[in-house]
Design brief:
Layout lengths: L3 E10 L6 E2 L1 E2 L16 E9 L4 E6 L10 E5 L18 E2 L7 E4 L8 E10 L9 E2 L1 H7 E12 L6 E6 L14 E9 L3 E7 L7 E6 L4 H4 L2 H9 L4 E5 L7 E5 L6 E11 L17
Antiparallel strand pairs: 1-3, 1-9, 2-8, 4-7, 4-9, 5-6, 5-8, 10-16, 11-18, 12-17, 13-16, 13-18, 14-15, 14-17
Length: 286
């Protein structure tokens, strides 16, 4: 099955109190991907980094309503997931193939200031695209050793994804074991970012991501097992060391460049221990 976790990122410039539609990061689209008919698509995460308190909203005629939709307050300098799915079995938002979402933000009215955010979307089956994922039970059964990988990302000043570096690029830290699978469980950063992304062949060449909140490392370090357990879906990415030079880590920032040392938390997996996990037919976690 073509399972993927996909990130969509956008930003607005000096919106003030006016809801302003996202300018999308290069390569991203708010059109829900074409998926296999009857397969499930879930909005798992939505977060924003605002310089002035505001609102982010996601709407579509296919959601609850096309007026406010999912309306989320965005405090100043606090990047938190607003979809109730992380620690407990909440309720993800079902999305529909080829529907086009509308995402808008309010915030700072100061000229040039960027307010930004990201969505994280799970697809059961997208033809031609396939990431490698496990669930929490598989991680617990087959985890061998914890490894933490540092990378340094320096973002640009124009919004969107930037600062991309290989996951093994930090001098003196490339200790990956040859031809070995690693579960990506999350990460922490020493400087705030809106979003931290990881992309490579093992993720289906789309970006998996988590919020880059500096003050809540307990959330980000356990990000993927948390959303996987809450959703009852295999959402923990698996990366193979053979691909490390082509696995890219990027950051999303505002109008000021940020140099962030990101520590990614990985778990070495027992050889040959990455089976698929069953998918529920209805609401995740039910």
């Amino acid at each position: 099955m073509g399972r993927i976790l996909d990130t969509v990122t956008g930003f607005v410039t000096a919106p003030g109190a006016t809801f302003t539609a996202w300018t999308l990061a290069t390569g991203d689209s708010l059109a829900v991907r074409a998926a296999t008919p009857a397969s499930n698509i879930w909005l798992i995460g939505a977060w924003a980094w605002n310089q002035v308190a505001g609102v982010m909203r996601v709407r579509s005629p296919r959601l609850h309503d096309n007026v406010q939709g999912i309306r989320m307050r965005t405090p100043v300098n606090l990047v938190q997931n607003k979809i109730p799915m992380r620690l407990t079995r909440g309720a993800a938002q079902k999305l529909f193939t080829q529907d086009t979402l509308i995402v808008e933000q309010t915030g700072s009215a100061v000229g040039g200031q960027i307010e930004t955010g990201s969505l994280l979307i799970w697809y059961d089956d997208v033809p031609g695209v396939a990431g490698r994922f496990i669930d929490q039970a598989t991680l617990q059964k087959n985890g061998v050793n914890i490894m933490e990988q540092e990378v340094t990302v320096t973002t640009g000043v124009a919004g969107g994804y930037s600062g991309g570096v290989a996951i093994n690029s930090q001098a003196g830290t490339d200790n990956w074991k040859a031809n070995t699978d690693y579960a990506l469980v999350g990460g922490v950063t020493d400087s705030r970012l809106a979003t931290i992304t990881v992309k490579g062949v093992d993720t289906g060449n789309v970006r998996v991501s988590f919020p880059g909140e500096l003050t809540e490392p307990d959330e980000s370090i356990n990000w993927f097992p948390s959303i996987s357990a809450a959703a009852g879906l295999p959402m923990i990415p698996v990366l193979n060391s053979q691909n490390k030079g082509a696995i890219t880590v990027e950051g999303v920032s505002q109008q000021v460049g940020v140099t962030a040392v990101i520590t990614l938390a990985l778990v070495e997996l027992a050889q040959g221990s990455v089976p698929g996990a069953p998918l529920p037919a209805a609401q995740p976690g039910v």
